[in-house]
Here is the input.
Amino acid sequence: MTSAVIYFSKSGTTATIAKHIAKELDAPAEGIVRIGGGGVLAFFREIAQSLSGKQPNIQPLSLDISSYDRIIIGTPVWAGRVSSPVTSFLAQYGGGIQSAAAFITHGDVKNPYSEVFEQLQTMLGKKLDATFSVASRDAKSGAYDLSPFLTNLRAE
Ligand SMILES: Cc1cc2nc3c(=O)[nH]c(=O)nc-3n(C[C@H](O)[C@H](O)[C@H](O)COP(=O)(O)O)c2cc1C
Here is the structure.
């Protein structure tokens, strides 16, 4: 089964996990790039977008999403939800995704944000093959274990 990792990362944490997963699976990884969206009000705009489902513009992806058997989607949690650039990605490319797995990073060490996976499944109209949730503190220090997630993916 061929896989590609597609992720958004504002400050590098989700990118770290994305690259780790890609390396383990020997799969390509590509980051979603927003067009615009900076400035001093960025944080508040990001919260508002994630809560409202508003989709920022993103650059076209280099990878051909529909040519992979599985897309592994990575997003930071924003306002308890999928980050808005990943919402844009799913709106534009979701129809070409054959099967999917997902991982999320978040600031709150006590909350695994399982509802974010439910939101992704609703957006995709598909069940996720595997999920992985990690707090940014643990992602940065390397205190996480990807093996159950990878085992689920390799079992398919
Ligand atoms: C706009 C915004 C909203 C966030 N909302 C939450 C949240 O609701 N819960 C949480 O645990 N962390 C929240 N965070 C923290 C990020 O999810 C966390 O730091 C994540 O690992 C960042 O990933 P990145 O470095 O790939 O961008 C938020 C961060 C930003 C920028």
